Amino acid sequence: MDPHPFFGVFLHSLGGLAAGSFYIPFKKVRGWSWESYWLVNGVFSWIVLPWLVALLVCPNLIDVFRDAPLSSMGWAYFFGALWGVGGLTFGLSMRYLGMSLGYALALGFCAAFGTIIPPMFTGKLGPLVESNSGLMILAGVGVCLAGIALCGRAGWMKERELSPEQKKATIREFSFVKGVWVAIFAGIMSACMAFGISAGKPMAELATKYGTSAIWSTSPIYVLVMAGGFTTNFIWCVFLNVRNKSSADYLGPGATASALASNYLFSALAGTIWYMQFLFYGMGTTQMGRYDFSSWAIHMAFIIVFSNLWGLYFLEWRGVSRSVHRIVFAGILVLVASTLVIGLGNYLATLK
User: Fold this and answer.
1) What's the pLDDT at 273?
2) Which residues contact residue 177 at a Cβ distance below 8 angstroms, ignoring those fewer than 6 apart?
């Protein structure tokens, strides 16, 4: 299949929209502890949807798993488990910083580590800096990080301008210092998703060999990576259920049947929307050509763009000065520009 990098960028934008929006249904969950709705979300996003999609689009899924190298499967699961730790702390960054700033800082580190380390590990970084197309992609990554820095600066200015009461009017548990440290850790660990996808490439190659369309070839990888993520999240959420005595949430004593059903529905909806990001991410990656690892930076950039737009919609930046709003919008525009620069670099690579 011939690559179409700009179509790939469009697919990544859809994935970024899904990832930047998945937290919204949680706002409709009532009376449940965080660990309860996070676990229900995880069942759908990390178990049900990956298996369902893979079974639908990969006609010989079991054969792929049977014949895939054990090392590829093992590393995909292992990096998925590490990525799951990042997912847990990523949720905390939303609690302490809100959607706009939490996404920007956590995914900034995630973009940097997840984009640069895989080609370093596979030995592709050297050839990358020796070609104009490769240098264009690295420039795009740099532009992406500049956009993230602008969003981070806007958050720092918000911290200085607003009173504690104003901050907590829109983000109940706002804590800039605590949130920054959590976001840094979450971003570094979340980059393990990119490593897991890279480790699982032999499975994608087998899927294509056994009749799966190239655009769906990453589906078997997600089954194992997501299973690893679910493992760590399941352990932690059950631990919190026991410690916080919140296990009763799932049966809803004292709640009406409709209220309980609503909590399950919106938690499942969040999980479904969350998985859609990787459905489109996998499709977009197949369109990027030789430098497909650059997909990670594009994906992160679009997530930050849409999360910041949602943050503005939900008035998380209410009460700040116009200069802060200008910096937020500048950061969004720079992030969009970075995806086009990276897409251009991938396009130039297809001309050779």
Assistant:
1) 92
2) none
Structure-token match 């901050």, residue found: 167
Helices (H), the chain: 5-21, 34-42, 49-57, 61-67, 70-122, 125-128, 132-161, 164-170, 176-190, 192-199, 201-209, 219-243, 257-285, 295-313, 322-350
**Which among 157, 181, 159, 177 has a CA at the least distance from the CA of 168?**
159
DSSP letters of 181-231?
HHHHHHHHHHTHHHHHHHHTHHHHHHHHHTT--GGGTTHHHHHHHHHHHHH
User: For the chain, what is the largest distance between any 2 Cα atoms, rounded to a whole number of angstroms?
Assistant: 66
Q: What is the pLDDT of residues 144-169, one digit of tens each?
A: 888 878 877 777 777 677 666 665 55
Report how far residue 297's alpha carbon sits from residue 12's, in angstroms, rounded to the nearest whole number: 10
Q: Can you give the pTM of this predicted structure?
A: 0.74
Q: How many domains does the chain have?
A: 1
Other beta carbons less than 10 A from residue 42's beta carbon: 25
Distances (CA, A) of 221 to 50, 194, 204: 9, 11, 7
pLDDT value of residue 257: 80
Please report the pLDDT score of residue 154 as a whole number: 79
Tokens 């179509």 map to which residue?
7
> Is the Cβ–Cβ distance between 183 and 102 less than 8 Å?
yes
Encode 122-152 in three state secondary structure: HCCHHHHCCCHHHHHHHHHHHHHHHHHHHHH
Contacts of 99 (CB under 8 A, 6+ apart): 20, 23, 307, 308, 310, 311, 314, 316
Residue type, 273: I
119, 154, 232 from 238: Cα distances, Å: 36, 36, 10
pLDDT digits (tens, 9 = 90+) for 281-311: 878 888 877 767 777 778 877 887 887 788 7
Tell me which residue of 53, 23, 28, 51 sits closest to 38, measured CA to CA: 23
Task: List the chain residues with pLDDT less than 50.
Answer: none
Give the domain range for residue 141: 5-350
Cα 132 → chain centroid? 29
